[in-house]
């Protein structure tokens, strides 16, 4: 006579209880992991755009602009860059795409994952809608004043606020670098060494 092998009801209940505990412990960590991953993807996309703009400015010997765009055709002036942004050759240096100016690359909307804000560029306070790179790849002063410097930061925020925000600082030479918390207060610092904000 053959004996049947299988799980008893008690063994099945114990296995289900262990599985439930593992899921309950792992789920919040997975959510944090996913949010961090989305921020890192946005950060890497912006670094790619900056590097493209710098290299094209040097290659073409022309001003290259990165601006926010919600229609993928013009610089639409949004201060939240998660609506999308584009890199284009800005021969007249006015920060807007015009006749004969070429769009080099479009970057899609990511607003469902949080905000992307530009700050400190030319003294802007989270309201910068475009930045420019001069013909040698360095940041171009777009406000024409000697009182401010063109260096600045892109801040990547989600629903966790400024203490979990990430940022890219762009120096005067146009080089991007990941922002760090230089004053150890659990918030990264922008290009002017000020805590970032997620207004």
Concise description?
With 199 residues, the chain is α+β, with helices and mostly antiparallel strands. Helix content is 26%, strand content 19%. The strands form two sheets. The chain has a four-stranded antiparallel sheet with strand order 3-2-1-5, covered by helices on one side. Strands 4-6-7-8 form a four-stranded antiparallel sheet, covered by helices on one side.
Write a concise keyword list for the protein shown above.
199 residues, minor pseudopilin epsh fold, elongated, 26% helix, 4-stranded antiparallel sheet, alpha+beta, 1 helix
Question: What would you note in describing this structure?
Answer:
The chain is of the alpha+beta class and 199 residues long. The chain has a single domain (27-178), classed as minor pseudopilin epsh fold. 26% of the residues lie in helices and 19% in strands. It is built from one helix and eight strands; from the N terminus they run H-E-E-E-E-E-E-E-E. Strand 6 and strand 7 form a beta hairpin. The mean pLDDT is 89.
Topology:
Elements: H1 9-60, E1 64-68, E2 85-89, E3 103-107, E4 115-119, E5 130-133, E6 152-157, E7 166-170, E8 176-178
Antiparallel strand pairs: 1-2, 1-5, 2-3, 4-6, 6-7, 7-8
């Amino acid at each position: 006579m053959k004996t049947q092998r299988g799980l008893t009801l008690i063994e099945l209940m114990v296995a289900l209880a262990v599985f439930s505990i593992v899921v309950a412990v792992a789920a919040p960590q997975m959510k944090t992991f996913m949010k961090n991953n989305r921020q890192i993807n946005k950060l890497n996309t912006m670094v790619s755009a900056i590097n493209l703009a710098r290299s094209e400015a040097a290659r073409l010997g022309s001003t290259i602009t990165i601006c926010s765009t919600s229609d993928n055709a013009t610089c639409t002036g949004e201060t939240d860059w998660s609506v999308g942004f584009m890199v284009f050759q800005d021969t007249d240096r006015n920060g807007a795409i015009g006749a004969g100016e070429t769009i080099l690359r479009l970057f899609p909307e990511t607003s469902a994952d949080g905000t992307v804000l530009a700050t400190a560029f030319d003294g802007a306070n989270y309201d910068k809608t475009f930045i420019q790179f001069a013909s040698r790849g360095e940041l171009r002063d777009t406000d024409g004043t000697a009182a401010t410097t063109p260096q600045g930061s892109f801040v990547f925020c989600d629903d966790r606020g400024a203490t979990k925000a990430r940022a890219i600082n762009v120096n005067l030479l146009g080089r991007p670098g990941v922002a760090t918390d230089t004053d150890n207060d659990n918030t990264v610092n922008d290009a002017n060494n000020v805590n970032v904000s997620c207004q």
